Amino acid sequence: MGTSKGYGGPATGLVPSWVDDPVPGVAPAGPAPAPGAPNLTAPAQPLPGAPAVPRAPDVSGAGRLGGARGSFSRFARTSSRSALGSALSNYVRNGTGGARRAARRMGASRATGARLLGVVRDVQRFGAAEALRQLNLPGLAGRPAADVFMALLEFVCPPGGAIDEAIARQAMLETIGDLAESGVGDFGTMTPDQMQEFFLDFIARSIEGRVVADLGGRGVTLPDDVAAVESAQQQLHDFVTGCTRGELSDRLDGVDRLSDRNIERVVDQIYEAAFELVAAAGEAAK
Question: What does pTM read for this prediction?
Answer without folding.
Answer: 0.81
